[in-house]
Amino acid sequence: MEKGIQEFAIDTARKAGALLKDNVGRIGSIEFKGAVDIVTDVDRKSEALIIDAIKKAFPSHGILAEESPELKQDSPFKWIIDPLDGTTNYSHGFPFFCVSIGLEISGEVVFGVVYDPMMDELFTAEKGKGATLNGKKIAVSAIGELGKSLLATGFPYDLRSSADNNLDFFSEFSLRAQAIRRAGSAALDLCYIASGRFDGYWEMKLKPWDVAAGSLIVSESGGKITGFSGGPFSIYGKECLASNSLIHEEMTRILSRR
Ligand code: IPD
Ligand code: CA
Ligand code: CA
Question: Which residues are within 8 A (CB) of 92 and not within 5 positions of it... i.e. 6 or more apart?
Fold first, then answer.
């Protein structure tokens, strides 16, 4: 894959991340998309920056971004963008959020970049070439037991109205793992699996932009990513189970009971 495209994606993620950082505490408007699902003017500004850059650099490429209708093109290239993953955190000034940009070629994610501007941490992965954090190779943890693991998860935005809301799995894993964190950014949760900070992560009802870049970063760091029963993972599917691979089976035993 061309280095130029990767450099473009990294540069664009950094620019969008700088915009997010500059606007912390300066949100102009908040709209509710659902009971607890919000979008701010800063999500939209970050998305406009990224989409404008792609349209200028690669006018023939498709674009799937969270806050805009999909731009379908007759091209094997498709960019999958979350301009601000962790909007709830952002709107409260909780400094855990990021920009996530993935690139699909012919339906396969081949490059991903996730940038956390508050920590100045840039995670990348290229298909078949490994994953990095600020340019250095990363790898998953070596913890082999669920009981010694630090897990991460999140809850779907329909948790008030749907019984399929992860509270059952959350209580079960709370009793089995060393501890669980609900940090509020799926893309960063996946990067934290890739860099060995978390050992396992599961979440349901995610969207392609939450996981396109992060899922490649997990698999390229030696981690495993599947559905809840261990079957193939799809960024367009409803289940995401990512781990250091060692505790994966133990986690599928709980998550396949649905
Ligand atoms: C959300 C975050 C959160 C996850 C939600 C996502 P957003 O994305 O990744 O951690 O639990 O399911 O929708 O709305 O902040 O871009
Ligand atoms: Ca998101
Ligand atoms: Ca978002």
Answer: none
